[in-house]
Amino acid sequence: YPSEFLVQKITEENQIPVHLHVSVSLQYVAGLKGSALVEFFHGNIAEVENEELRHLMWSSVLFYKTPNVEVMACVLLSTKAVYFLLDDSFVHADEHQSDFWNKENSDCENSSFHLSCCFVLKLNDLQSVNVGLFDQYFRITGHSADHIVTCLTRDSYNTHTFIQQLMAVLSLLARTPSPEPVDKDFYSEFGSKNTGKMENYELIHSSRVKFIYPNEEEIGDLAFLVAEKMDGLTNLPSLNILLYVLAFQVNHVEGSAQNTSSLQPKTLILTSSDLFLFDEDYISYPLPEFAKEPPKRDKYQLTDGRRIRDLDRVLMGYQTYPQALTFVFDDVQNQDLMQNLTLDHFGE
């Protein structure tokens, strides 16, 4: 153990996305190759001796207890648990959550020893996995608020690969079987549904973990919300969401030593007439079973919206993925100026 193919595959996956910055400790992990990576896992992360490392992925993650802090993590999937090796800057990012993270080793901060926090979610504690719209992210839910993590892969391929690997590993778990369901006849099973729509695309794995996928109503709800933000300028039936993508808005920070740019996570939605940027809550919805009250903020909050017909030009960077796009709009304060002039000129 492990096979050469698996070692090679994990080595290939051990690459930090170029646009995201990580601490020295995670850069060290990203520099490990081949058997050194497997040895590092067994020597520093694995909790039991006989667990196998099956998959590695770099992703931004959000925790239910700290919904506003997105942090870079190396996600390691073994036959026993999912490990999130976190950027050490996260521990100090939110002072209110000091009880969430154990700070015993704070005396190591000023030495040359680089510390990383590792958050462990045991597969036996896993209850459900919610896959986001268009596989841009997924949320893993355990038995309490401390055990809810969203991975913002921003990449359908990475999401799909991780879910496939997770299902394969869960199949190895020896869980007590569910009690036998009461036999229902065909008509009572399928006859009570009045609509042709499925209530939820829900797959219950043999390990009893639920995999929940968004249904078509979620897109309908999103289209309705977008139409609301457009102040009724278009009729809802003709409104089509052409693109939904998790992206970053680039804000240039001037005055620093070198003009750096900070990346603000945004949800970009393109319709046939408008381009929208939303702040989206990726961690609180759908509500976990133990939630006593709804989240403090809505799932989608509009931050910017522009009409496509006001788009002047699109500038494209020449770097490799991820691609940078700059949208230049005509800066007209009163969007309907010409229309109003026309009405006044030609009368009723």
UniProtKB/TrEMBL annotation:
<dbReference type="GO" id="GO:0032880">
    <property type="term" value="P:regulation of protein localization"/>
</dbReference>
<feature type="domain" description="Nischarin C-terminal PH">
    <location>
        <begin position="241"/>
        <end position="347"/>
    </location>
</feature>
<dbReference type="Pfam" id="PF23142">
    <property type="entry name" value="PH_PLEKHM2"/>
</dbReference>
<dbReference type="GO" id="GO:0019894">
    <property type="term" value="F:kinesin binding"/>
</dbReference>
<dbReference type="InterPro" id="IPR057714">
    <property type="entry name" value="PH_NISCH_C"/>
</dbReference>
<dbReference type="GO" id="GO:0032418">
    <property type="term" value="P:lysosome localization"/>
</dbReference>
<dbReference type="GO" id="GO:0010008">
    <property type="term" value="C:endosome membrane"/>
</dbReference>
<dbReference type="Pfam" id="PF25625">
    <property type="entry name" value="PH_NISCH_C"/>
</dbReference>
<keyword id="KW-0963">Cytoplasm</keyword>
<feature type="domain" description="PLEKHM2 PH">
    <location>
        <begin position="114"/>
        <end position="178"/>
    </location>
</feature>
<protein>
    <submittedName>
        <fullName>NISCH protein</fullName>
    </submittedName>
</protein>
<dbReference type="GO" id="GO:0007030">
    <property type="term" value="P:Golgi organization"/>
</dbReference>
<dbReference type="InterPro" id="IPR053015">
    <property type="entry name" value="PH_domain-containing_M2"/>
</dbReference>
<dbReference type="InterPro" id="IPR057288">
    <property type="entry name" value="PH_PLEKHM2"/>
</dbReference>
